Amino acid sequence: MSYSLEYKPDVKRFLRNYPGLSREGRIRLYVNIDSNLRQFGDYYRQDPTMRLEPGSDCFWYSLLMRDWHGDGRGRTFIFVVRDIAAVYGVLELVYVEVDEGSA
Fold first, then answer.
1. What is the pTM (predicted TM-score) of this model?
2. DSSP three-state, residue 98
3. Average confidence (pLDDT) per 10 residues, the chain, 103 residues
């Protein structure tokens, strides 16, 4: 199933203002999230090891990316995604953090 993605305002603000990412890097980040999470969200939703805890309505989603147009550093973007509205075709990205030491 293909989902609509809803970014909470804090997540949008964080990604828009994240230092070291170029405009091209931000576009590529959104395109990768869209092509992966939106298209294959059921894969992540059905994996119990991705849940924050058993029975939680949230799961982890991560994306490794290097921005060659920005500072060239590799980063892992780690998102918490709420799927309580998945029955309506919506996944909500409610939290994001970045691990800069993993790439």
1. 0.90
2. strand
3. 94 92 93 94 94 95 90 92 96 96 59
